[in-house]
Amino acid sequence: MLDKTHNIKVPFWAKLMIILLCGDLFVLYSIRLFYIMPIDSDYSNLILEAADIISGNVLLNDWIQTGISFLTTDLLYYVIAVLFNGVSRNSYLVASGLMRFSA
């Protein structure tokens, strides 16, 4: 009697909805977590770089960069956040939450 297992068939759309819901909750939790932490100059610089990219300076001409370029990693999330929130602290919160979700 204990050997019988019952397989419950869950539709694909239900699995997808559960995954998306968990992802949304994780992003919201991450944004709330980053809301507690103060923003530092590195992240402020990324927000300004993202705003400059959106305004047309895609290669960041006239910017003095360090030896580490975040152009293909972190900066993409900041460009998305600045598109929706502008240059604000909310851009930092959204970009940080998106980075944690995709990691």
Key words describing this protein structure:
4 helices; elongated; 103 residues; mainly alpha
Number of helices: 4
Which range does the strand content fall in?
A: under 5%
Largest sheet geometry: none
- On the 0 to 100 scale, the average pLDDT is 85
What are the segments in which pLDDT stays under 50 over at least 5 consecutive residues? none
Proportion of residues in helical segments: 55-70%
The coarse silhouette is: elongated
Report on this model:
The protein is mostly helical and 103 residues long. It contains four helices and no strands. The longest helix is centred in the N-terminal third of the chain and has 25 residues, at 12-36. The chain is elongated. The mean pLDDT is 85.
What is the element layout, followed by pairings?
Elements: H1 12-36, H2 41-54, H3 74-85, H4 89-102
Helix pairs in contact: 1-4, 2-3, 3-4
In short:
63% of the residues lie in helices and 0% in strands. The chain contains four helices and no strands.
